[in-house]
Amino acid sequence: MSGTLYALVAVGLTMTFGIMNITNFAHGEFLMVGAFATYALTVSGVPFVLALLGGAAAAAVLGVLVERSTFRYTLADPINGLVVSLGLIAILQNGMAMMVGTEFFNLAPPYAGTVDVGGVVIATQRLFTIGFGVVAIAGVWVLLRRSSLGRSLRALAVDPTAAGLMGVRTGYMYSAAFALGCGLAGLAGGLLAALFPASPFMGAAPVAKGFIVIVLGGLGSVPGAIAGGLILGIVESLGAGYISSAFRDGFGFVALILLLLVKPSGLFGVMERRA
Amino acid sequence: MSMGYTNRWSIVPWALLALLSVYLVAAGSDFLQHLAVVTAVYAVLAMSLNLAFGYTGLFSIAHASLFGIGAYGAGLAMNFLNAPFAVAVVCGGLAAAVMGATVAAVFSRMEGPYFAIGTFALGELVRLLLNEWRDLTGGPMGLMIVRPLGADLGTFGLDLSQRRSFLILALALLALTAIGFAALLRSRLGARMTHVRDDPYLSASLGVRVFRTKIEAFFISGLVAGIAGAVFGVYLMFIAPSSFSGMESVRLVMMVVIGGAGTLLGPVVGAGLLVLLPQALRMDPTISLILTGVILVAVVLFLPKGIVGAVIERARRWRERPGLVARPAVAAATAGRN
């Protein structure tokens, strides 16, 4: 389950990196916004699935606003984009804290109960999270591979100038890429809100995981992000089960450092092309 | 774009700072002295980050963690090994330096944002260790550090029960860091660092050992950050993981970028602004973080060299204004000497 969520976060992160060359440390804050939007919608009576989509939409809209007002102007210097994203963390986290306070918000799991899958008992909510996450990732995959939008985005990732000359509306596509990435983060946030308490500061841990995942998988690679997410989920579960559950979050870092020492470009690295 | 400190005017702000320091040590109220200690420590910390980011191009989001390693290193050395204060400070500094150098060794081989991501990961790892390794660090409850009594060689001859001693210590550290960095930047290592920042490929092709330069720069940066942390930890007498969180590292980046990365004075100005302004305006920390976030984004978009960088740029343009260039060379040279 955590693997699916990591992959959701990581696919969005790796897309904004691959297409716009922006290392967005504020990605977790879009996740947090999605979580709160989903929470607000569910509490006011909207069915959970629609609330999830609403949360994703809220994060996507915010993403477009942020992209249009800031990241658009830092494309020439990736470090500036990175610094801007750090400023956004401060703005979004504390802005939300000012609006809702710093306590935790618990959402009753919309799908209570358990399911017996071939002798293994799993909470329905977790099964739903996995299913929804897999569907969303598959949807993005099809979008990137099969649609004209996806083709434009991939062209932009390879060479913005050439893509522009071939008729891709680059400005428009940057917004689309950012909306898609932030939407996925918002979706992950909504799914998380149903499993764990939500707070304005919930974004930091998932984005740390997201970065481990995309470095494991190779920066800018969508299949790498998916595979990396699943690998990280498995590594953490095994580490927590066999070594120490308190240091569960540490195993990913260890795996990351080991992999980088052996294969710096990640499992599905595309960095060589950028260098 | 090296900001050589050849202009004689650049000494003015430092002289003013020195005067202010003398006043604060001699006659500052308790509260002002406290603010001065905090500001000076953060200024040193921001300068250490600036050495990595502004001068070597190594973007670090882990400097609050290195600061924390310094504080915990010193605290543990004093609590468990009964180390004298001076030794503990060195322990804290070295612990942070070794950690920084290790991270640099793992992550600086790669292109692009890997280094920033690596330091981000280090920050999370340190937070995890400080929170979970409870036997050693006290976990989220924090660690008490007992200040040593009396004044001897181990406390640099200062009576550490007094606030003024820490002010002297912090100001001395700030002065040493500023002078040390100014000297470092004129040295061969300093030249290598700025070359690596400006063009790693060209530097490598000219025989600069890029990898080694990065590690050396981050070692020194970590050392200074760790020493600042050690002094601050003993000053506060109590440290907890929350003081060294990711948001703290973000605040350090804000100090450096808003003040002016790649300038000697910039981080000091940035630290002064970020520490003192919320105090002066009696601002809620939440609101002040939102505000500084907005200022950071605005500075990146409109004033990419930061406040000090922009001032230096203006001054340079004024000195090289067209009217001066048009004069005969001899007249310009004598005019420059007046």
Explained architecture:
The complex is a heterodimer of chains A (275) and B (338). By secondary structure, chain A is mainly alpha-helical. Chain A has one domain (2-202). Chain A is built from twelve helices and two strands; from the N terminus they run ααααββαααααααα. Chain A has a two-stranded antiparallel ribbon. In chain A, β1 (114-117) and β2 (120-123) form a beta hairpin. The radius of gyration of chain A is 18 Å and the shape is globular. Mean pLDDT of chain A is 84; it is low at 271-275. Chain B has 338 residues and is mainly α. Chain B has one domain. Chain B is 75% helix and 1% strand. Chain B has helices at 11-27, 30-56, 63-81, 85-107, 114-132, 134-137, 163-186, 188-198, 200-205, 210-236, 246-259, 266-280, 285-302, 306-319, 322-326, 329-337; strands spanning 143-144, 238-239. The longest helix of chain B is centred in the N-terminal third of the chain and has 27 residues, at 30-56. Chain B is globular and about 60 Å long. Residues 1-5 and 329-338 of chain B have low confidence and may be disordered. The chains are: A mainly alpha (275), B mainly alpha (338).
Which SSEs are present, and which pair or pack?
The complex is a heterodimer of chains A (275) and B (338).
Chain A: H1 2-20, H2 27-43, H3 48-69, H4 78-100, E1 114-117, E2 120-123, H5 124-146, H6 148-158, H7 160-165, H8 170-193, H9 204-217, H10 222-242, H11 248-262, H12 271-274
Antiparallel strand pairs in A: 1-2
Helix pairs in contact in A: 1-5, 1-8, 1-9, 1-10, 2-3, 2-4, 2-8, 2-9, 3-8, 5-6, 5-8, 6-8, 9-10, 9-11, 10-11
Chain B: H1 11-27, H2 30-56, H3 63-81, H4 85-107, H5 114-132, H6 134-137, E1 143-144, H7 163-186, H8 188-198, H9 200-205, H10 210-236, E2 238-239, H11 246-259, H12 266-280, H13 285-302, H14 306-319, H15 322-326, H16 329-337
Antiparallel strand pairs in B: 1-2
Helix pairs in contact in B: 2-7, 2-10, 2-11, 2-12, 3-4, 3-5, 3-10, 4-5, 4-10, 7-8, 7-10, 8-10, 11-12, 11-13, 11-14
